[in-house]
Write a structure and sequence with these properties.
Number of domains: 1
Largest sheet: 9 strands, mixed
Structural class: alpha/beta
Number of helices: 13
CATH architecture: Alpha-Beta Barrel
Distance between the termini: 33 Å
CATH superfamily: Glycosidases
CATH class: Alpha Beta
CATH topology: TIM Barrel
Radius of gyration: 23 Å
């Protein structure tokens, strides 16, 4: 399912402007309409000056994109359309829960060995590697509702810690590494227990349970590294302040900073403007409970002598689900939120951003509450929503190693990020206000081609408009906008 706006097409265009709404895959058979982008001598909305200085490099991009496969792992694996959508957007990391694809049918506690069937795991991992991505496997899941670890059948729990015995869990974790090594699969990234704060508490002052978890982590990590020393292991509470500080004294090395980012846990708790502000700051900057990426990196370097890569291993607009998900997730504000998160991840030097989750059913979600689920693709018809298209554009046009160059905007309403790839200048432009803005571009000249999504088009009935404008005339964007401008440098 190739998109009209795929990277290869864009690279052949002198300058491309995409105003995100629901852009249509070419294979749907829907026809694009042609219109002129709003320009002219009469201002429309606040006037903003945008300048790109492509001669001044301010950083280098480290970011690649990823997504989570949770309950939908099997449908994704078995759907050529969904796998192609993932490949088209150039996703590079796919996170999995071990308990969803559990290969162990029975665990012998005394012998610390199990009976394994790796068929589902192998077919899924093969599908991931086949599209040019790699897995991140989270081994272990502590269920807050059941107040216990979800473990293979017959694995015992220690009555004192309410966790598996470290030696037994470590032997189980090592089986994953041994299997992939024997099968010839390159699986580098691992986490030990998803969101372990459900066990030891949020930024815990009492370290008793935290000590039990660190003991479990250390035992598992050591056995896993014995099987393959070059694997990368961490946990997603690694930047939580009290966990981080305790870890420096008691934990084995982690190989990457790892955190989760949801900007709300209650539908309607924050306005659009508040959510978009949180997109740029929460977990990226130091707060009461978490170290920001920069500070955590520096502290680890000071204590352990190593600069760690960083992975936002689970990310979403809103984590609320019991009474329905946030209906804004797939809408234009969800696209703006996604773009702001990715922009800040790039500026903070994050290596991967994992979106939760790939797909969800709009019809099922609405019959069980509000919203459309957490997905970026509607599994009812395999039609992408706005956040997918944001990531398709960024994933296809911003590469690891690309220099980031200086940009300036005369208004806080417009966020910018400019990069250069093979003499192609890419300018990401985000209007984070749902009001019209008139933009004057400085440093970009000539006839411009654009692909445009009008804000009057429903995100459930997407279409695309195509046209041309002259870069010397004012450019009007009508509300929430995510845009990519592209030109060849001489």
């Amino acid at each position: 399912m190739k998109l009209d706006i795929s990277g290869n097409v864009i690279l052949n265009t002198f300058l491309l402007l995409i105003l995100f709404g629901s852009i249509i895959p070419a294979s749907t058979g829907r026809q694009s309409s042609v219109s002129m982008l709003s320009t002219g001598s009469i201002p429309y909305g606040s006037q903003i000056d945008v300048t790109v200085n492509f001669t001044k490099v301010i950083g280098v991009n480290n970011l690649s994109l990823g997504f989570m496969l949770d309950w939908e792992w099997k449908s994704w694996r078995d759907s050529s359309i969904r796998r192609e959508l993932a490949q088209d957007a150039n996703f590079k990391l796919i996170r999995l829960f071990s308990h969803r694809i559990e290969p162990c049918a029975y665990w012998n506690e005394s012998a610390k060995t199990g009976v394994f069937n790796w068929t589902d795991v192998d077919t899924l991992v093969h599908s991931i590697l086949e599209i040019g991505a790699e897995p991140l496997i989270c081994i272990g899941f502590y269920s807050s509702t059941e107040n216990s670890m979800l473990t293979p059948p017959s694995m015992a729990a220690n009555s004192i810690t309410n966790l598996p015995y470290p030696e037994s869990f470590a032997a189980y974790a090592a089986e994953w590494i041994k299997h992939f090594k024997d099968a010839g699969f390159s699986v580098r990234y691992y986490e030990i227990v998803n969101e372990p704060f459900h066990y030891f508490g949020w930024n815990p002052s009492n370290t008793t349970k935290l000590a039990y978890y660190v003991e479990l982590f250390n035992a598992a990590a050591r056995r896993m590294r014995q099987e393959k020393p070059d694997i990368l292991i961490s946990h997603d509470t690694s930047t939580m302040k009290k966990v981080f500080d305790y870890w420096l004294q008691n934990g084995d090395d982690i190989d990457f900073l790892d955190f989760h980012k949801y900007d709300s846990n209650t539908v309607g708790k924050f306005t659009d403007a508040e959510m978009l502000k949180r997109a740029e700051h929460l977990r990226f900057d130091t707060s009461f409970s978490f170290y920001g990426v920069d500070e955590a990196r520096q502290k680890w370097l000071n204590a352990r002598g190593k600069i760690l890569p960083a992975i936002n291993s689970e990310s979403g607009f809103n984590s609320a689900w019991k009474n329905g998900t946030d209906p804004r997730i797939p809408q234009r504000v969800g696209a703006v939120w996604t773009s702001l998160v990715l922009r800040m991840a790039i500026l903070k030097g994050v290596n991967y951003n994992v979106y939760y989750t790939f797909s969800s059913s709009a019809s099922y979600s609405q019959s069980h509450g509000d919203g459309y689920g957490f997905g970026m693709v509607n599994s009812d018809n395999d039609q992408p929503w706005y956040p997918y298209y944001v990531q398709n554009i960024i994933g296809n046009n911003l590469k690891v190693g690309d220099p980031i160059v200086e940009t300036n905007s005369s208004s806080d309403d417009i966020r910018l990020l400019a990069s250069i790839h093979d003499r192609t200048l890419n300018l990401l432009l985000i209007n984070k206000i749902d009001e019209p803005r008139t933009i004057h571009l400085h440093g970009l000249t000539g006839e411009l081609n654009f692909f445009k999504i009008d804000n009057t088009i429903s995100f459930l009935t997407p279409s695309i408009q195509i046209g041309t404008i002259n870069a010397t005339r004012p450019l009007t964007v009508k509300g929430y906008t995510v845009a990519l401008l592209q030109t060849q440098l001489v």
